[in-house]
Amino acid sequence: MARSPTFSTSHGDNRALRRERAFLVGIDVRGKRKGGPPPQARLARQASETSGPKVSEAESCGAAKHTGIAVDRLPGFSAEDSMAEFRELAASAGAEVVGEVLQRREKLDPATLIGRGKLEEITGTVAGSGADLVLFDHDLSPSQQRNIERELHARVIDRTQLILDIFARHARTREGQLQVELAQLEYLLPRLTGRGAEMSQLGGGIGTRGPGETQLETDRRKIFRRMRHVQQQLENVRRVRAQQRQRRESVPVETVALVGYTNAGKSTLFNALTNAGVLASSRMFATLDPTLRSITLPSKRKVLLSDTVGFIRNLPHTLITSFRATLEEVQRASLIVHVADATSQNAGEQQEQVEKVLCELEAQNKPSLRVLNKVDLLSNAERALLREGEDVIQISAIKGIGLDSLAAKIDAMLTADPVGRLDVSIPQSEGKLLSRIEERGNILHREYAHDRVQLTVEGPQSLLRQITKFQSRVETKASGSRRRLEAQR
């Protein structure tokens, strides 16, 4: 089971917690591309709105949808960008980075990933820095991991295990812990052989928050048995979610899902729209457990807003599989709001990574709205380059900029329970009905005549159907003026 975060401790009554010291190793096998594009060129690319030919559903899974920010078809992340992101991952896992090295290679070494010569160089550097563990910004096969550990005499953690550890740290609900545990078991299964010392550590450290079955003598049968048990529990969670969703779908309440790259500001936006108070942190993967809250749109329609786990470059497939119960909210959503960091120099690449995950979830063809967040950090000139389109809008969730426009845009894009307008004449004695109209609709005109109220109501069809029997045959002044104006047009 996913464990709570633990750190190295000193012995004695006053056991002082300290951050683990990590040495980072990055690998670049894509040539000598250095640095990112100039800021103005990046913003100009982001501002360009693509209008190319439509692609088939199969083709769209191999490339990002064009939604207001052009995808850079050159290699997106430079080696330096990847290392900067890896540093953030290490910090999110609670590590103190004491050194790093970037190895450029034409191809990966099958035995040690980085080659024997570089491995010997790193051995001395790691020993001199006093690092507790070495983090590789790449997936390692079980044999590669054993070969590297044998040479370095230190614990070695690859990218997937680091992300799993961060997920284990941030899982709060029972469902989240089960999902992380299943992913950990799938990762652990091929790595049982030769990992006796590491697998027996229950006490702590990054990458050692094992899912429970941690002794070397734990055989595959026990691992499979535990996996089946966790899958059964997750299936129960999925069944409960399906029942809850079925009850929600029995009334016309649509779901809007927030998706995006990790640390794009989804939880901050979620809090700004719902006042939910969920954890909003600059740390990666601060949100793991899905949260649903009701919000009222300008038309007075109520929709459910869903906050989801952030995506990342090379997100482990086991996590996508394990979190499928959570990500079903994305699959079932009527509208996907793709939140992007407008200040990121890798916005195009991040968009492509998010679209790849949406393709795996078979949600790539859903109606989507692209939200460029954190525009308060851009100058006026830079913001001017990020032109808004029909499905692109600029906001600052933390400053509250553009939230009203965003709510109106969401309102306009939802199709269930559409908004209409009706002139009605309702007896003043129908106080409960009048109160319901005030609550669920917008009253554009109100006029009192004898014991009746003449209203022009704009609201969802579910409300208008309840008051159709009071439809007025006598024009109000406002409705008459409106019709004359429309006739003149």
Structure overview:
The protein is α/β, with parallel strands linked by helices and 489 residues long. The protein has 4 domains: 16-162, GTPase HflX, N-terminal domain (Rossmann fold, 3-Layer(aba) Sandwich); 173-234, no CATH class; 251-413, P-loop containing nucleotide triphosphate hydrolases (Rossmann fold); 419-488, Alpha-Beta Plaits. Helices cover 40% and strands 18% of the residues. The strands form 4 sheets. A 6-stranded mixed sheet has the order 8-9-7-10-11-12, sandwiched between helices. The chain has a 4-stranded parallel sheet with strand order 4-3-5-6, with helices on both faces. It has a 3-stranded antiparallel sheet with strand order 13-15-14. The longest helix has 30 residues, at 220-249. It is elongated.
Please give the structural blueprint:
Elements lengths: L7 E2 L7 E2 L1 E9 L10 H9 L9 H4 L18 H14 L2 E10 L11 H14 L3 E4 L5 H11 L2 E3 L1 H12 L3 H15 L7 H4 L20 H30 L5 E6 L5 H9 L16 E6 L5 E6 L9 H6 L1 H9 L2 E7 L5 H14 L7 E6 L6 H6 L6 E3 L8 H11 L5 E9 L3 H10 L1 E8 L2 E9 H7 L9 H12 L1
Helix pairs in contact: 3-6, 6-7, 7-9
Overall structural class, as computed from helix and strand content, comes to alpha/beta
Report the β-strand fraction as a percent range. 15-25%
Number of domains: 4
Strand order of the largest sheet: 8-9-7-10-11-12
The largest sheet is:
6 strands, mixed
Taking all Cα atoms into account, the compactness measure Rg is 27 Å
CATH evolutionary superfamily of the largest domain: P-loop containing nucleotide triphosphate hydrolases
